[in-house]
Write a structure and sequence with these properties.
By secondary structure, the protein is of the alpha+beta class. 47% of the residues lie in helices and 13% in strands. The protein is built from four helices and two strands. It has a two-stranded antiparallel sheet. Helix 2 runs antiparallel to helix 4 and helix 3 runs antiparallel to helix 4. It starts with a helix and ends with a helix.
Amino acid sequence: MKRLTICFLLAITGCKVGPNYQQPENTVGDEWMKTEEHEPYNDNTPQSAWWKVFDDPLLDKYIEAATCCNKEILSAEAAICQARALREVSASKLFPHINADLSAFRVDLSKNLINTTAIPKTLSIFNALFDASWEIDLFGKIRRTVELADAYIGSTIEEKNDLLITTLAEVARNYMEL
């Protein structure tokens, strides 16, 4: 019996589904950061409000309008919320699910249908249901689904950032050309 238990445990541990996710290495060199004098650009702080360098209040107003009123950006923000909700749904499968339903209703029968006194004029029906289920994540399917959902959240955030950068650059470019 002991030998059978050990074989069973070894078989279960060998049923891992796929390798763990590892973020890819950045293979881009520092050559793109060099200026004409071949000195590396040393300002490591990202400029999230880069258009403020122009010190133009009208451009600030246009940028603010583009960020708060652009339907594509608002749609991208909604996609982020949707991805986070889907992640919560995926993670909820790791836990037991319990459902309960209680209901009661009364039915009054028509006097025309009742010919005998043996059938009651009013029927009361009571119903109680209980259901509990839990899928044990033995092979890692649910954990991999949660990892996929986390990656999808990151993807939607970066899509929104890409859209935001593109939109703000277009607003600034069109403003400067005008």
